[in-house]
Each structure stands twice: as structure tokens, then as C-alpha cells.
Amino acid sequence: MHLLENIKEAFRSINSNLLRTILTALIVSIGIMSLVGILTAIDAIKASLNSTFASLGANSFEIKAKGYTNRFRRGGVQGKTYPAISYLQARQYKQQVGEQAKVGVSAFIAGAVEVKANGEKTNPNMQVVAGDENYLLIQSYNLQGGRAFSPTELETGTNVVIVGAEIKDKLFPGQSPLNQYIYMLGRRFLVVGELEKSGSSMGGGGADRLMLVPLETGNQLPRQRALTYDVKTATLDATQLTYLTGEATGIMRAVRHDALGQQDSFELERSDSLAGKLDALSGNLRIGGFLVGFITLLGASIALMNIMMVSVTERTREIGIRKAMGATALNIRQQFLIEAIVICVMGGTLGILLGVGMGNAISLFVGEGGFIVPWLWMTVGLIICVTVGLASGYYPASKAAGLDPIESLRFE
């Protein structure tokens, strides 16, 4: 008997024991679903978080004062803290960088603001941020309508505002918010721009709950404490990012009057370093997910081997008849191996489809990401299916191939 005839015989055997085949395939599909599902979920979550980090700009870095988030060194000794970056220092840094890159200066004004207009009011969870002319560009926020701040408005601190989509939908449903007035923080603001709807994968509302005012206007608004300024620098040329970070470090040291030999009073964080941290984290998650899926798949392979052993026992007389008709041990081994592989591939295909759906469904709980098709994990899943079929079916197939034809024919 040649290979094609063995394949046909394997399919005939599967068809004659359809219920057992379906149950066996389901065992394998559960194992493959857990493996592919976990890995797909990790990739989908990573893609969703990458879209969030993209708002920082692909080739940008942020400068912050050092010592605000880590006040204590190892051993409980209090570390040295440095004053926050002042408005004057931020302006000096921006001026000295010049045309080498785009520098955006912004300040967080308030994060629990209630906005009123047209007799309506929003929930008290809107964010007010003051920014300069480069803020929208560096944050990758796009205007749905209206315009950005004019140079005069930026210089004089005019009461104008650019609003997010959620604020527009709440206060101006079915109409344009442009040239309308809103009230917040005890002042009246003219709406000059509207941001595109962005959503958020971090649960904070993204740009949809944002109200952007000119930086000078933000300096005039009432507040309980001094503003902390964020300084972000971006370049269109990724190859210049390393050089630019060195230049920025030197400029900021001069602006902050850091003495020669003294450590930097600020820290510089590149956006691609965040992506690197995310890659490292997702890599560790993949290893953990693969181990969990592998353990589940190991249980499925043991169950498959047990069922194949039962099948060999039930078909002992059939094996004896085939050997008496001239079938070799190789023919018998091939038949049972092919049968095990076909069952695994059937179950694995179902498991891959369920795993892809499950992984993308899990990612929806983290954020708004597009549906991804993990071709790599689908291919790996199919390869594993064949491997599991070979591993689980080899011993039963070898046992079947080694049966004595005379004793097999006597088997009842």
C-alpha cells in the first residue's frame, strides 16, 4: 500500500468513528485556542498601547525635573530633589534650540473641571491644558474644524479654547461649537477649534476630554500651586534624534545652571525608550503566555495519545487482517500517524480561529485597537498541531505496527 492509500484509509477510519474524532479534535482545539488566544491578545494589546504612545511622537523626547517621582534612594536615604522647570527656563530652552527641532511647552492646569454652555454642563472630569503653537503637532492631535491659536492670542493670553469631541457632543449636540462660548474656571472662553475624536486605550479620555488654552492664558488662570511645565522636543529626522538629545542636554544644563561635574537636575525620556520598554514587557508576557498554552496543549496531547491507544486496541483484528493481506509495519504505522495528524489539524484549525477571536476580544477590554490577524501565531499553531499529532500518535502507531498478525486475527 502506498502513501495515498494510507491517507484514504485514515480518513475512512476517522469517518467511521466521527463522534470520537470530534471529541478528540475538540480537546486539541482547546489547547491550541489557549496558546494562540493568549499570544494574539498580547499582540493586540501591544498594538493598542503603541497607538497610545504614538501620541508622544515617533521621534521625540520629554524633559522633566529630576527628583519628583523618586525622592528616596536605596537604603531609605532621602535623595536630592530639584526645582521644577520654570516657565522662563522652558522659554529659554525653546529659544536656544531654534530651528533644529520643534519644541512644545505645555502645562497641566486642572483635571476635574466642569464646563458649561447653552444651559448644559459636562461631568467634572474634563482636563484643561495650556500649550503653545507646537503642542498639537507634537501630540499628534488633529483639528476636526476651526483653527489653531493665532500668534496674537498666544502672546496676549486671550480667552480662547480648542475643545475635544466629548465636550462638543455634550454641550453642542448636532451643531458646531465654533465661535460659541463656554464657561470654566470662572471665565468665559471662545471656542476657536475642535479636535478629532480619538478615544483612549488608557481609560483617560485622550483628546476627547481635553480643553486646550494658550500657554499665556494658562499662566493667568487661578490655581492652588505653581504650574509644572512639560517640555517636549520632536524632529522629523529619526537619524538626528540621538544627536538632538545630546544638544538638548547641554542646552538645558546651561539654562538650569547645572555646575560642571554636577549631575543633571533633569531627566530626558525618549519616546522610543517607552516603545523599547513595551517590547521588553510584551516579550516577557509572550514567554509566560506560551508556557501556559504549552501546558494546556500538553494535556491535550496526552488525551489524544490515550484515545489513539484505545483505537489501536479496538482495531487489533483489523490490523491483523491488513497484515495478512500484505500490509507492512510501515504501512500500519503511517496509517495511524496520518490519522493522528489529521485529527490534530482539524482541531487545531478550529482552535486557531477561536484563539484569534478570543485574543482580539480580550484586547477590547484594554483599549480601542483594530482587529489583528496574527499570521505568525497561526502558522506556529499549525506546525504545533502536526508536531503534537506525530508525538501523540507515534507510540500507538508503533504498537499497532508491532502486533503479530496471527495473534491479532485471534483477537475478539
TrEMBL record:
It is a multi-pass membrane protein. Residues 291-405 form the ABC3 transporter permease C-terminal domain. Belongs to the ABC-4 integral membrane protein family. One of its GO terms (cellular component) is plasma membrane. It comes from Hymenobacter rubripertinctus. The chain crosses the membrane at residues 21-42, 287-312, 340-366, 372-395. Residues 21-231 form the MacB-like periplasmic core domain. The keyword Amino-acid biosynthesis does not apply. Keywords: Cell membrane, Membrane, Transmembrane, Transmembrane helix. Pfam families: FtsX, MacB_PCD. This is FtsX-like permease family protein. Signal peptide: none annotated. Its main location: membrane. The keyword Transcription does not apply. One of its GO terms (molecular function) is transmembrane transporter activity. InterPro entries: ABC3_permease_C (IPR003838), MacB_PCD (IPR025857), Macrolide_Exporter_MacB (IPR050250). It is found in: Cell membrane.
